[in-house]
Structure to design on (252 residues):
């Protein structure tokens, strides 16, 4: 359980918390913030792929961590690569332990039933249990599901992905409808349910926000917009301002 009355700097194998979760504050959730692969897991891939978008949402951890330097904002971050376990999937979805990603085979994930179950028990379930406990202990006014997307998919190189960022949501679009014009006012090209729809891929927010009536929006930032520390600082400052305005409007 998260103690909301003290500064939180907690780490577990599957997740970590930055900042101090507050009742009525803002919580950033970044499922794919790490490219860590535990020493006892061999994915059977070229190690260079761990710096590729298939392994991690590049730039997201830096943005989230800098956002938590502001009072009232905390972050819950995935602590292993999405190739080890993809937290933003339903538990029984094939991609929760992916055997391929963007044209790359992941042979070390060709697990039998027992191996697959062990991966879920070690990473997936502790991650979601800890996130649920944090939300219950310190209910935020706004959750921001933070991801990044690659400008170019290897499996579909002809697809044009021109957006600076995209806003995703499912049935509860109240926060998203507030966030989109605020992002556009920054001079950004903003995708509404792009580069893909939150109605199709929204597992973590469906489970922890939609199911409990919590306000949230999903934000996908194009990875080449947050590839340096300076870019990450710019986006962190921008998102602090925008998220505070969204939260104030929701709480109004």
């Amino acid at each position: 359980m998260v103690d909301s009355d003290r500064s939180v700097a907690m780490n577990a194998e599957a997740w970590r918390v930055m900042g101090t979760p507050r009742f009525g504050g803002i919580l950033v959730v970044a499922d794919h913030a790490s490219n860590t692969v535990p020493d006892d897991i061999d994915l059977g891939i070229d190690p260079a792929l761990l710096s590729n978008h298939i392994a991690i949402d590049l730039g997201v951890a830096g943005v989230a961590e800098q956002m938590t330097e502001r009072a009232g904002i905390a972050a819950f971050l995935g602590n292993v690569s999405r190739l080890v376990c993809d937290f933003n999937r339903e538990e029984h979805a094939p991609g929760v332990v992916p055997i391929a990603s963007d044209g790359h085979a992941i042979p070390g994930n060709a697990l039998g039933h027992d191996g697959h179950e062990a991966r879920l028990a070690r990473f997936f379930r502790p991650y979601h249990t800890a996130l649920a406990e944090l939300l219950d202990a310190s209910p935020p006014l706004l959750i921001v599901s933070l991801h990044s997307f690659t400008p170019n998919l290897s499996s579909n190189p002809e697809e044009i992905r021109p957006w600076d960022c995209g806003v995703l949501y499912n049935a509860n679009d109240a926060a998203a409808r507030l966030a989109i014009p605020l992002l556009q006012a920054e001079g950004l090209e903003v995708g509404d349910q792009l580069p893909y729809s939150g109605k199709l891929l929204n597992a973590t927010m469906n489970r922890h926000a939609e199911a409990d009536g919590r306000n949230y929006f999903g934000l996908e930032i194009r990875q080449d917009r947050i590839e340096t520390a300076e870019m990450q600082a710019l986006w962190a400052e921008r998102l602090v301002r925008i998220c505070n305005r969204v939260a104030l409007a929701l709480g109004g």
